[in-house]
Amino acid sequence: MSSRRTFTTLALALAALAPAARAQGTPSLNLICSVQDEWCSLMSATFSRTSGIKVNVLKRSTGEALAQLIAEKANPKADIWFGGTGDPHLQAAEMDLTAEYKSPSLPQLHSWAQDVARQSNWRTIGVYSGPLGFAFNTELMAKKKLTPPKCWKDLTAASLKGEIQVANPNSSGTAYTMIATLVQLMGEDPAYEYLKALHKNVNQYTRSGSGPIKAVARGEATVSVSFMQDAPGEQMQGFPLATSMPCEGTGAEIGSMSIIKGARNLEAAKRFYEWALTPGAQQFGATAKQFQLPSNMATPLDSRIPDFKTIKFVNYDYAKYGKSAERKRLIERWERDVNALPR
Question: I need a surface site. Which of 47, 84, 157, 208 has the fewest CB within 10 A?
Fold first, then answer.
């Protein structure tokens, strides 16, 4: 089924369930969206159509979104923040930038989504999860006679010098998840020694977490460290892309959603929040060629969503590594000990 037909079918189904639009006036919602553009558009357009609420979308990476919330704390311009890695959402909760809201939909969600809500004192909630892994360009691998990476240690091979792209943790939740994963997998000092070795092979640190996998798909780099949900969309466009999961173990993002404290359109924000947790709304990720595991257990799953049962995960401590002080400390150490080094 085409994306257009899927979108139409889902929109009609949601329309049947949505409350009628208000008879007078046009309520509005200011939405910070930290997922891919098409996903943001599908979510905002369908919610607006089915609820009668005008949605103004502000597209931001997770780092940019958190910076905006901090800057606007005294006078917030946005009402709700959807998507992006969960660590910045937890930091926003810790900094009292988001509002407490205990959703009645919680029992419908996977335990990892409920855990995030509980850890944040009900100031954020998990909406999807995606594992961190490797993507590589199969044509470049063959042309350069390189061996596809299967383990974290493979990325430090001398043969991959200048062949790897990863994101910058100052702006990318993907990159911070990588650092936090390695620290928990190896221990902090060994993890930073590993990052120094990896640095020698990195040709660019990109602003966004999706940048490296797009570069690899288009032959601008050979290997990336990326969230695996980004791979099928590139493969569907015909790019020579393959993936693998780190043999030692890996982490996963928990994409989250938070209502902003002091939201001017609080009731509209709560309506979007509840709608975004429904199985119908959670199918829009796959419609937009993003293949995370949705948090609502009743959501029909696309076959291209990774099977979490087959992946070796670290015991990722979202509460600890979601704290602003820990994030700041780890990124400052990365800047000082890794990014400052020549390549």
Answer: 157
Are the C-beta atoms of residues 42 and 90 closer than 8 Å to each other? no
> What are the Cα distances from residue 99, in Å, to 54, 96, 125, 238?
22, 7, 12, 43
Nearest residue to 125 via CA among 145, 157, 101, 148: 101
Model confidence, pTM: 0.82
- 3-129+254-308 under CATH 3.40.190.10, yes or no: yes
**Structure token pair of residue 144:** 């350069």
Alpha-carbon distance of 97 to 276, in angstroms, equals 20
Q: Copy the structure tokens of residue 68.
A: 């905006």
pLDDT in tens, 86-140: 988 999 999 999 999 999 999 999 999 999 999 999 999 999 999 999 999 999 9
**Rounded distance, CA 65 to CA 89, Å?**
9
Task: Tell me which architecture the domain covering 130-251+324-339 has in CATH.
Answer: 3-Layer(aba) Sandwich (3.40)
Q: What is the pLDDT of residue 25?
A: 63
